[in-house]
Amino acid sequence: MSHVSIDGAKCQGHGRCALIAPEVFDVDDLGMGLVLVDEVPPAAEADVDEAVLTCPENAIHVR
Ligand code: SF4
């Protein structure tokens, strides 16, 4: 399983992550990305990979 985080200094709140992987990401009241889970469920890993590639700010990190 992998751990995912959002770099709040880079995130500009486009919200694409929450659209692509809503089981893992949400947006706060200002539209900034939030991570909902400590560990990425195996079924969501492909969506998270897509979110990483799609984030315009390169703000999502997986390890
Ligand atoms: S897609 Fe990237 S910039 Fe947009 S809310 Fe998600 S982490 Fe932030």
From TrEMBL:
Keyword Transmembrane: no
Cofactor: [3Fe-4S] cluster
Keyword RNA-binding: no
Keywords attached to this entry: 3Fe-4S, Electron transport, Iron, Iron-sulfur, Metal-binding, Transport
Superkingdom: Bacteria
InterPro entries referenced in this protein's UniProt entry, alphabetically: Fe-S_cluster_ET
SUPFAM superfamilies: 4Fe-4S ferredoxins
Gene3D superfamilies: 3.30.70.20
Record-given protein name: Ferredoxin
